[in-house]
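Q: Could you write out the predicted structure for this multi-component system? I'm mainly interested in how the pieces pack against one another.
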Amino acid sequence: MFDTVKYKTRKMEPGDSFPESLYPEILRGINSFPKVLFYKGDIVTGLFDNCVAVVGSRNMTMYGRTVTRNLVSALCAGGITVVSGFMYGIDATAHASCVEFGGKTVAVMPCGIEMIHPPRQKDLYMDILQNGGLVLSEYDEEFPPCVWTYPRRNRIVAGLCKAVLVVEAGEDSGSLITAGFARKYGRRVMAVPGPVTSLVSAGTLKLIKEGADMVCSAEDLMRLLGHGKGQVIGEHFVETIENNLNKLSTKIISVLGKEPLDISMLSKILEIDIPLLSVEMTNLSLAGVICEREGMYYVS
Amino acid sequence: MLVKINSIAVLGVDVVRVTVEVNIASRGFPSFDIVGLPNKSIAESKERIKTAIQNSGIEFPSSKKITVNLAPAGMPKEGTFYDLAIATGIVCASKGIKPPEDSMFFGELSLDGSLRHTKGAFLAALYLEDIGLRSIFLPLNSANEAAVFTGINVYGLSTMGELVSHITGKMQLAPYKNAAIDTRSKHVSTQDSEVVGQEYAKRALEIAAAGGHNVLLIGSPGVGKTMLARMFSGMLAPLTQQESHEVTKIYSVTGKIPPGGSLITARPFRAPHHTVSYAGFIGGGNPIRPGEISLAHRGVLFMDEFTEFHKDIIEALRQPMEEGKVTITRSSMSVELPCRFLLLAACNPCPCGYLWHHKNKCKCSVPDVERYRKKLSGPILDRIDIVCRMRDFELKSPDQNVLSSHDSHGNNSEIKMVIDRIYAAHKIQEKRFDGVGTVLNSEMTNMQVGLHANLSVEAKVLLNRAVESYGLSARSYFKIVKVARTIADLGGAGDIEPPHIAEALQYKTSTL
């Protein structure tokens, strides 16, 4: 059985009045609000006062990951609760970054409260609960996730938040459904632009065309949320390293800064032999300046 | 009269001595029987022998009772090579001649009395002295295989008649002299080296060839995995004499040496299709025959579409890869076959293959990809030293120097340089492991890594840093040192320096 039993399941209903209602006020404002919500973890005061949903594609790219971490760090610094759907990809990254940066996060599950879905994100699930986060669901016991529970879940995600940020989304993705609910409920819809060639930016670009607010930086995000300039956590150490780089490293970083490449292409462009380039790539990776995923190199 | 002729029985790639006893009795009902657990091919030899003797102009004692016993009688026997031994026994027994001493008779007969190329001749000659014999009579077409060995007399026969003339003293056969052994190693043809780009993968294969490291290539369809593999077979150093004997033994037993062929000098390259059966892959059948892994002994086993192979087959690779041999046990016998090969595996990044493709859309969901990758992980990945991810490249404009950087001429000379480096690295390793029993860096045990790796202090510091930041396991640690050792050997360096470690880290297997 799951370790989730360790965390007691409680429930809240819109009609609760003793001693004070825990049911989020903002959620009651939508016309199809859930009649009951099950949850694990503690509802700290003000948890639902200032929520922003960070959602996106399951097929996250490295770009999506970087942007999510960056923007979530700003939200955490601003004391904003990050709500998402606990799916792998952008959702999971949003939760994980929030835990990492010490922010508050709420995971809305598409399945019964006693289930972890997707199951292999159990570690993240425990991390969320251990770091004062909240897990929510309108289904009890081990109700299995179904095709129709995902959009139902999305309505809660949108309903809980004053704004929805879509980082990466495919053309017919669930994230667009969340954005659709947000618009219906009168929430602000924000989207991160991406390359027009990227399949997982097609959805966000569509949202922008339809009038969603474009978020290009943490500054944009915090300004749109009325939080002034905002600040980003954990961006400083890279710069100090960059000062100590040799000529080749600088070249590599400037090329990778334009687009992620694999080592063969990089060797063609820089006209440097693979053995020499490999050495440099390892050193830069170990210094944390670049990172590698599935053979592609990205600037961290 | 009773005549005894020497022969052998093949067990895997080993032999045991067998005595073919032929008795021709005047009393009793005329018959021709072979006993001593012969299989179908030996039982059928009766007709071949009878006809061949008659067609050689020799009288066959049809009116007598002929009994042939293959001793020891309790061991099952297989092979058409008993034809000559049985026929010689019958001729000697019916004519009352004593067959030549210390001689083995080996070969398959044709109905016209001629001798056909027979598999296993190399093996028979190899163990001839071990079983206490000095001469071997075999088909002319197979004589080149046997004549590799000095100190034994090899007689190549084209017909049964020649043998009878020799035995009866009418004509003396001259021992067969080994025709010059074909020592030409396979050279990379221009066509094979026409893999565009993929310098990273080429370097990975260079390291693999130099140190005998197992490699996994991951890439979308069409990036050149198969072409690189083909090129790889030409990059390997030729077999040493000892290795050549080991390989020729296996190929002789399986009948893969052509008529007139001799020692195999080029490293084997086996590319079994992923539908290969378990017995065809590991070895088996009745009698037990070497499978693909043994045919790849001292060479390359290329497993294209690695993930498509049956799970049992991939799992079965574990022990043979560790020990360099496979023991196949059946109720009747147990056979040990050598199989020290270099595994070159290739697969797609995801089930549909286009996960990393710049243009084609991947149709796989994230769990699909994870399930697919799981097939690769675990024990088999532990035995792979180098993982190389091959991305396809986008041709952005005609003047981009992706295609034009090497014309075919330049490319060829580059390949030659690579091959020279590989051979030089082999020499260094030969010196290092002289008398240790290990041949290549990849075969080093953890203790040998400590003895021979020669890590510089700076290299150790770098490696420890990598272990920490990548969270590498102890096994990965040793794999990286081994690969770094090979990289250092390719550069002719004595100690492993930080650049060697840094390059080796590029091929680490831990992040699959």
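A: Regarding packing and overall arrangement: Confidence is low (pLDDT under 50) at residues 234-242 of chain A.
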